Amino acid sequence: MSPKAAQAPSRLEPPPLEATELSRQLLKAQEEERRRISRELHDETGQALMVLRFQLELLLGDAGGKETEAKIREALEVLDRSIEGLRRTIARLSPRVLEEFGLLTAIRRQAQLLAKHTGMKALLDLPHNWAAADHDIEVALYRSVQEALHNVAKHSRASNFAVRLEVTSGKVTLQVEDDGTGFSRRTAHTRGFGLTGMRERAAALGGSMKIRSERGKGTSIQIQLPLAKSAAKANAAAALRHAS
Ligand SMILES: Nc1ncnc2c1ncn2[C@@H]1O[C@H](COP(=O)(O)OP(=O)(O)OP(=O)(O)O)[C@@H](O)[C@H]1O
Ligand SMILES: [Mg+2]
Q1: Residue 197 above 80 pLDDT?
Q2: CB 93: neighbour CB atoms within 10 A?
Q3: How does pLDDT run across 4-39, given as a tens digit for each residue?
Q4: Ligand 1 touching residue 160 (CB < 6 A)
Q5: Considering the domain boundaries, does residue 12 fall inside one?
Q6: Does 9 map to a domain?
């Protein structure tokens, strides 16, 4: 083989991808995988647990004695907790709420859930209208809210949190803030994957992420993503419609 032929890309090889395009495709594949797992959990594991529940209830009907009955009831309780846990996992994995009800409702629901489970006070500052953007952008915003609020719940010990979404000149800005413990830069680098994942997701879509956090002074995460021209226009028009 001549050196030239050795360097020429084989026909079977796809052309090299730009790093951001590769990240974008990896994110897409990851979302698709999550959706598949969520579907399987729902259709297979979920169904199997429901059948089990039905059979235990039948057994309860002709349990021979109090002791057996108590054991079946105990098993039913464990099963119900597992079904509830499975439901939550399915909801976390699949952005179905995003697809069914749209971004603003999906964000509101996340915030309400956090407020309900922790007793924290939520402040929401969302556009009155949101003309749907590119699906990748919507998923990125939804996943970022999910992770940021998960962090608020897990680490912040805050009393208040806020979620803001703003569209300005071709950009969408998401901000999630809390008045909790805050953290140092070093902590963020040495622990989990959540913040890194958010930053990479934003970068893959041509955007950026900023973190402001100080011990004892709370945390603010800001994500900026560019909107496609059509989505920027549609959102500007939606805002105008609301104002008039
Ligand atoms: N809102 C917050 N308040 C206080 N500390 C935070 C907050 N968000 C993040 N942190 C700190 O930054 C660290 C890194 O956050 P990150 O989301 O990357 O990882 P994690 O939440 O620990 O794990 P993972 O997200 O992988 O489950 C956390 O471990 C925590 O110490
Ligand atoms: Mg996290």
Answers
A1: yes
A2: 18
A3: 444 555 556 655 666 677 877 888 888 889 888 988
A4: no
A5: no
A6: no
Atom of ligand 1 nearest to the CA of 156: 3
Q: Answer yes or no: is pLDDT of 77 > 70.
A: yes
CA of 8 to the centre of ligand 1 (A): 46
Ligand 1 atom 6, closest CA: 155
- DSSP output for 72-98: HHHHHHHHHHHHHHHHHHHHHH-THHH
Among 14-28, 44-58, 122-136, the range of highest mean pLDDT: 44-58
**pLDDT band at 231, cuts 50/70/90?**
confident
Domains in the chain, number: 2
**156 and 176: one domain?**
yes
Could you please report the per-residue DSSP string of 109-169?
Answer: HHHHHHHHHH--EEEEE--S------HHHHHHHHHHHHHHHHHIIIII--SEEEEEEEEET
With a 6 Å cutoff on the Cβ, whether 24 touches ligand 1 is no
Residue 195 CA to ligand 1 centre (angstroms) = 7
Residue 190 identity (one-letter amino acid): T
Minimum-distance ligand 1 atom for the alpha carbon of 181: 4
Distance 85 CA to ligand 2 centre (A): 19
Question: Within this chain, do residues 125 and 195 fall inside the same structural domain, yes or no?
Answer: yes
Domain range for residue 50? 19-93
